[in-house]
Amino acid sequence: KSKDLPTSLVSSVAMAIIAQKLDRHVDVCSVFASEKSWAFSKAWLDCLVQNKALFQKPELVLKLLETLVSFATSCQDREIQELQIQVTKAIVECYTELSLADKNKVISGVLAAWGGPGLSLNLQAVREGFQEDLNVTFNQITKSVSDEGLTRAVASVARLTLLYPEATVRQLCHLAVVNLGAHQFLAQILCSFPALSFLETHEDPGRPHSLVVRCLEEAAWGKLSTVREEEQFLQFLAFLMQPDSATPLVSPAEVIKPFVLPYLKSDSPQIELSLQILSKVLGIQSCSEEHWIKSCHPFPLLLSLCKLLDGYTRYWHQPGDQVFPSLETKDLILNILCQLCEVMGPETTPSPELWVQSLAWLHRKVASLDWTVGLRLKKLYEDHFKNEVPATLFEICTLPEDEWTSQSLPAYGPGSGLLAWMECCCVSPALRDTMLSLLTVNVDNPEEVNLFSKGFLVALIQVLPWCSHSEWKRLVQVVENLLQRQVLHVPYTLEYVQYMPLLNLRPFACSLQLSVLFLRGFQLLCSSSCSTWLPAEAWLHVVQLYCSSLTDLLTSIKSTEDRSSTQELSFICIQMFCHLLHVAAMLPGEGCGEPLVVVALEILSQYEASSKADTSPSNALRRANERHFLEAITDNVGDKELRSTLLQKLSKLGA
């Protein structure tokens, strides 16, 4: 264009070229969209409205938006507001006709130019009525959660995202948490906009952070009021990191830094959810050669987890007002520690020298914690450090000195070797197997076997209350191994046997011994010598572990049953039932009845199934005698609720 021609004439010619689609009208559209001196006249607006189809390109929509914002910031007249609304409407209509990929290009441009607030930052016309528009749109979306409704929903969210990106994402994140079952649908919508993986830098240019993660923090984090909301938050977050087909919207590192690292303290209200997030994130494969964990301070992260584990050694003796994660969470921490040790290696640090220095730093820090914590880092330590254990462990194990070294620990005096051995068995399946192979008991020496068996029971009871469910399962496997090898002596008494059973109980000997060993353990635990050792709140946990073992035992027995062993199985069920009632009678206080009732009913149901499957001629008489015996035992149960429930079940056995 000539500089000598008036602006009005040039713009009129340009608009005529556009209207008539003359030669080079495409180039003229680009000038029309960005030439601020032409903009916002009535003729300019009419040209835009009448030729919208020519402006349905992402680069032209962006130029129009830049022109709109420039004009709006330079002119605040009230009369201009109405014109601003009309121009915005026309540009949004052009944008609406774009493909989803092109809409993402526009959103990227909007975020790059104006950040999270988008057009709302400078356009009052956008801010006015936006919240109502947002509410109405999302209300319609959440009512049509379906594959068919996805395309419509994405189109609606695309329009809102253009106008006010961060408010739209915030609302979507909020609804994903509070709207039951809508989280995956809303995550699919959000993942349709890879442009939202935008990294903001306005607060700290050196440390960019994710817009989506910030919106999640503002909309949901710290406001989750139910377990269901926490589950939906976790699943929503997981989908954003690993969508079915789309590009991930947030990276594992972007999630860990705000939602995990600040909360790995025992008194943090969010710790259990943070640990679940960490576990979920560690399950995501790294897409690059350099693992994402490298940017997340992996060694301090490991130390935080180790300190949490160390706290469990004082679990039942924490101050009353101190919050600490549950023993169920201990298993989660142990799994995370294993996951971390799997993904970490020398390649996660800038140099081999730094790797060795970092290992030495971690080893020094962990040295002040409980000795078992260091054993859990063996996969990470490899051959850099020996296993450090109480000196008394060497008294009962043949430990190779090139791998093991002794510590003098005041809490592990003479006779504590079995306790240390058992704690080692809890650490991992591999260490459990190592301990079983290194244990030295002379089975040809009756006195040694007797002493070992008595010491084993005492050590088992000492470890039991501090075990998580997975650790206890590991210990029960140790007991079963020692019973099968006949290293552990558990005599089976006939206190709940009316008549000598003429049955083949040899295949079930280990199961019967295990059941009676649990009973002996509770007899010791409930005795006067241990009366003040365990606080009242620990009993429910101990009973839950016991009941989970009985359930596993019942499952194991059922798997070994054949048609010829129905009487044997009935006998074992009666024994387990009597042992359980004996334990129930000894327990101090109340509050442990529920898990006991559940398992007792399971045992009676299995007894009923086995006795009905017995086709021998004397079955009817035997069932009548056994039912009478079980009722007599149950009548002596002190817990009224337990007694009533079990007697009701027994009354139906003969029906």
**Uncertain regions spanning at least 5 consecutive residues:** 1-5
Biggest sheet, spatial arrangement of strands: 1-2
Largest β sheet strand count, sense and barrel closure? 2 strands, antiparallel
Distance between the termini: 102 Å
What percent of the residues sit in helical stretches (DSSP H or I)? 55-70%
Regarding quaternary structure, how should these chains be classified?
A: single chain
Overall geometry: elongated
User: Could you tell me the strand content as a percent range?
Assistant: under 5%
> How many individual β-strands?
4
Number of helices: 30
Radius of gyration (Å)? 35 Å
Let me know the average pLDDT. Answer: 90
Q: What would you call the structural class?
A: mainly alpha
Structure in words:
The chain is mainly α and 655 residues long. Among the domains are: 7-98; 386-489, no CATH class; 508-651. 62% of the residues lie in helices and 2% in strands. It contains 30 helices and 4 strands. The strands form 2 sheets. It has a two-stranded antiparallel ribbon with strand order 1-2. A two-stranded parallel sheet has the order 3-4. A hairpin with an 8-residue loop joins strand 1 (199-200) and strand 2. Helix 1 (7-20) crosses helix 2 (25-34), helix 6 packs parallel to helix 9 (147-163) and helix 25 packs parallel to helix 27 (566-586). The model is unreliable at 1-5 (pLDDT under 50). This is GEMI4 protein. It comes from Xiphorhynchus elegans.
